[in-house]
């Protein structure tokens, strides 16, 4: 039951907003009593915390499965970006923007986990791209990673429209790739940019 409550409430939080959804709304939607929810969660903040952890795990399981498919480094980044777009495409408002605005402490906890995992992901991607001859051999990996995740997270935290988030992320990825790509990498980038920006 606990997992079902987390799953349904997270779906509602993402779709309708973290602030606007009440414990009563969740109970009504699930056809259970509020008492049942409070049996597992003392308050809404705990439920949101658990929900963001579930979203984090789902995102990174999906990313790991994409990485395991062994695409080239540039294609891999575009596939991951498309995955994010498909995962959050039905939303009107950026979840990170909502979380930062209404629940800053939970947002900070979530961002701590995300930055740790994304750091590893971005480092691995750049190392892979260098090995494949797609990224320049002497780029400062740590600096590139810091620039890129700062850009991506800033877009999500300061842009309320999810549609605008997707648009800006697409151009941020192009910007990041052009900054570190070799001539071979630019050819692969242009190939990815020719694909429909779905």
Description:
The protein has 10 helices and no strands. The two termini are 36 Å apart. The chain has a single domain, classed as Tetracycline Repressor, domain 2, CATH 1.10.357.10. The radius of gyration is 19 Å and the shape is elongated. It is mainly alpha-helical and 198 residues long. 78% of the residues lie in helices and 0% in strands. Helix 4 runs parallel beside helix 7, helix 6 packs across helix 8 and helix 9 runs antiparallel to helix 10.
Keywords:
mainly alpha, Tetracycline Repressor, domain 2, single chain, 198 residues, 0% strand, 10 helices
CATH topology group? Tetracycline Repressor, domain 2
Structural class: mainly alpha
The percent range for strand residues is under 5%
Mean pLDDT: 91
Number of domains: 1
- Count of alpha and pi helical runs: 10
Give me a quick take on this structure:
This protein is an all-alpha fold and 198 residues long. Helix content is 78%, strand content 0%.
How are the secondary structure elements laid out?
Elements: H1 2-16, H2 23-30, H3 34-40, H4 44-68, H5 73-88, H6 95-102, H7 104-131, H8 141-158, H9 162-180, H10 183-193
Helix pairs in contact: 1-4, 4-5, 4-7, 5-7, 5-9, 6-7, 6-8, 7-8, 8-9, 9-10
């Amino acid at each position: 039951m606990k997992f079902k409550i987390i799953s349904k409430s997270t779906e509602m939080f993402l779709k309708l907003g973290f602030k606007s959804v009440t414990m009563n709304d969740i109970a009504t939607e699930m056809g259970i009593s509020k008492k049942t929810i409070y049996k597992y969660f003392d308050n809404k903040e705990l439920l949101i915390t658990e929900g963001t952890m579930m979203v984090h795990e789902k995102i990174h399981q999906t990313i790991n499965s994409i990485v395991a498919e062994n695409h080239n480094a540039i294609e891999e980044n575009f596939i991951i970006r498309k995955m994010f777009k498909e995962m959050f495409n039905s939303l009107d408002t950026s979840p990170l923007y909502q979380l930062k605005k209404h629940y800053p402490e939970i947002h900070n906890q979530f961002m701590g986990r995300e930055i740790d995992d994304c750091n590893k992901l971005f480092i691995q991607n750049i190392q892979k791209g260098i090995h494949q001859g797609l990224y320049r051999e002497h780029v400062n990996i740590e600096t590139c990673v810091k620039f890129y995740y700062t850009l991506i997270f800033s877009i999500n935290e300061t842009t309320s429209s999810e549609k605008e988030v997707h648009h800006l992320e697409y151009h941020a990825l192009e910007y990041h790739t052009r900054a570190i790509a070799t001539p071979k990498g630019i050819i692969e980038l242009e190939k990815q940019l020719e694909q429909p920006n779905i």
